[in-house]
Amino acid sequence: MPPAEPTVSELFDLSGQVVLITGAGGHLGSAMARALAEAGASVIATSRDVDKAAAIAARLPSPTGAVHCGAALDHLDTDALPERFGQIIEQAGKVDILVNNGHAADGHDWTSVTAEDFNRQLSNATGYFLLSRLFRDHVVVRQAPGSIVMLGSMYGVVASYPDAYEGVCPASPVAYHALKGGIIQMTRHLAAYWAADGVRVNCLSPGPFPSEKAPAGMVARLEQKLPMKRMGQAHELKGAIVFLASRASSFMTGQNLIIDGGWTAW
Predict the structure, then answer these.
(1) Helices first, then strands: H and E counts in the chain
(2) Percent of the chain with pLDDT over 90
(3) Which residues are within 8 A (CB) of 127 and not within 5 positions of it... i.e. 6 or more apart?
(4) What is the pLDDT of residues 169-185, one digit of tens each?
(5) Rounded CA gap, 190 and 131, in Å?
């Protein structure tokens, strides 16, 4: 007999799954962490500061009784990643889903960015890769399936408009564009190599989702560049992150899902 067809609710259900999400306290990271918790997962919320991570985890909902926890992790501290990942496994017992969301930002535009600034921005991708490889090795030893979600950006696919920033704030950083384009390509590469291991690798690329700290003049200009004529709200990524993390996307790997209000449709 063929296996019973899962229902939509079952496909999106993350009960019994453990998710490690980096940068869980950020503007978008906090919304995605809540989404994963609301879907039933046990969430390991990480931050560079262990007290902040614990506070983030304590605020997450638990509709199915899942236990959340916080852990200190800096994806840029590459020498410490194996030890920190091992400690997280000891704490949580396992990890089934990895969301590489943490980001060390740099605001220098092309006119002022130094080689050191540029290389530090690209080191975000190094941390994503090393953490992904640790996760892949962990699930392979367990003989379990795994799902990795990388955070890209629409700016890893298209250029920005110079006039959206001119006279208001520095231009969108060139190193950020190089970083996000690299993450999207790394997603494809790892997906091709790790599919045989039962590890799916996909990328979620948000468009304009500014926080309240963003310059109002820049936001107004960006809105005019969008078909939907408005900025994204953090909760509008919740459905996408659960889709990519869950069995709802079980036949999807190596893909870049862009949520951008139509920006890249022009």
Answers:
(1) 8, 7
(2) 94
(3) 75, 76, 78, 81, 100, 102
(4) 888 999 999 999 999 99
(5) 12
pLDDT tens for each residue of 221-250: 999 999 999 999 999 999 999 999 999 999
Helix segments in the chain, DSSP class H:
8-12, 27-38, 50-58, 81-92, 115-142, 174-194, 216-225, 238-245
pLDDT digits (tens, 9 = 90+) for 210-220: 998 899 999 99
Question: Is residue 235 within 8 Å of residue 197, measured between CB atoms?
Answer: no
Amino acid symbol at 231: M
pLDDT at 171: 87
Are the C-beta atoms of residues 98 and 146 closer than 8 Å to each other? yes
Listed in sequence order, the DSSP H helices in 14-65 are 27-38, 50-58
- What is the per-residue burial (b if ≥16 Cβ within 10 Å, else e) of 201-231? bbbbbbbbbeeeeeeeebbebbeebbeeeeb
- Domain-embedded: residue 172: yes
d(CA 144, CA 18): 12
Q: Which domain holds residue 224?
A: 8-256
Q: What is the pLDDT of residue 266?
A: 87
Tokens of 103: 């980001």
Question: Is residue 249 assigned to a domain?
Answer: yes
Residue 3 DSSP SS3: coil
The count of structural domains within the chain is 1
Residue 37 lies in a domain: yes
Q: Where do the H-state alpha helices sit in 95-215?
A: 115-142, 174-194
pLDDT of residue 1: 66
pLDDT at 192 over 70: yes
Give CA angle at 188 (182, 193), nearest 5°. 125
Please name which of 28, 178, 49 lies closest in space to residue 117, comparing C-alpha atoms. 178
Q: Is 1 a member of any domain?
A: no
CATH number at residue 36: 3.40.50.720
